[in-house]
């Protein structure tokens, strides 16, 4: 081989080495870029998973609160009349005491009747006190007939009343606050 060929071979070798160095540098830079992309992807996946966990926890807490509030609402509805029921115990106690006093007493009939009447009056008074405490009121029946609160069951001729006025109350009506519980049954004048 001649020197020229040797030089050419050396040059080719040098060029080949340079090309390989460039290729390896390119591969190294691509690998480092690829690693940083993979790191970013892994970091983003971790954040996504953390956000999903937070979402599921908050959603579960919300569902638990919703169920608890619904349960409390139904309990409140179920026990809404508890205070009223407690207030009705006093009139029942009064009636029971009146019956017990009648059985135990050796009183003449007139005195016994007076005691029973007194017990019944006291019981009615206790009922009205319980009603008042819970905003239950008697519907007024003085004056004109009001179809919103009165139920006319008959019409009568009455020289003392004008037409459309209430003559007689057959059954009292009651309202709870502004809501009608039961209309008054009345007779009205023609």
SSE blueprint and pairings:
Blueprint: H1 3-78, H2 82-87, H3 89-104, H4 109-133, E1 136-138, E2 150-156, E3 166-171, E4 174-176, E5 179-182, E6 184-189
Parallel strand pairs: 2-6
Antiparallel strand pairs: 1-4, 3-6, 4-5
Helix pairs in contact: 3-4
Characterize the structure shown.
With 190 residues, the chain is α+β, with helices and mostly antiparallel strands. The protein has four helices and six strands. The strands form two sheets. Strands 1-4-5 form a three-stranded antiparallel β-sheet. It has a three-stranded mixed β-sheet with strand order 2-6-3, with no helix packed on it. A hairpin with a 2-residue loop joins β4 (174-176) and β5 (179-182). The longest helix is centred in the first third of the chain and has 76 residues, at 3-78. It starts with a helix and ends with a strand.
Structural classification: alpha+beta
Q: Main β-sheet, in a few words?
A: 3 strands, antiparallel
User: Could you tell me the strand content as a percent range?
Assistant: 15-25%
Principal-axis shape equals rod-shaped
The whole-angstrom Rg is 48 Å
Question: Roughly what is the average pLDDT, rounded to an integer?
Answer: 85
What characteristics describe this protein?
6 strands, alpha+beta, 190 residues, three-stranded antiparallel beta sheet, three-stranded mixed beta sheet
